[in-house]
Amino acid sequence: MSKLKLVKSYPERPTSTLTNHEVDRVDFDEGLLPKDSWERELEEDEYEVERIADVRSSKKTRYGCTGREYLVFWKGYAEPSWVDEIDLNCGELLRDYDRGRTDRNRFEAMQSHEE
Known about the structure:
This protein is α+β, with helices and mostly antiparallel strands and 115 residues long. It has a domain at 48-114: CATH 2.40.50.40. It contains one helix and three strands. Strands 1-2-3 form a three-stranded antiparallel β-sheet, with helices on one face.
């Protein structure tokens, strides 16, 4: 059985010193940046989700998978509507809703075992 030999000395590597001159420095002041510049404009056929209220199983697809529909409240509209999971583009809200729902189910299961 052979072993690899440990390298105890390393060859010289080139080094260079960087100089930082105040003249070359660029100051990115937050006051100069537009507020919420990371948010994109909505298209004409896009609507913003305010919150998710409920979830239900939708009908099976041709491949045998069941989808989910969410009861969605839209910003600027009073009535919620059921929307297929595929049609929603609000990943953070979906994740938060699913995580909260899982937490509630776990809490209810713990309470039922205590009784």
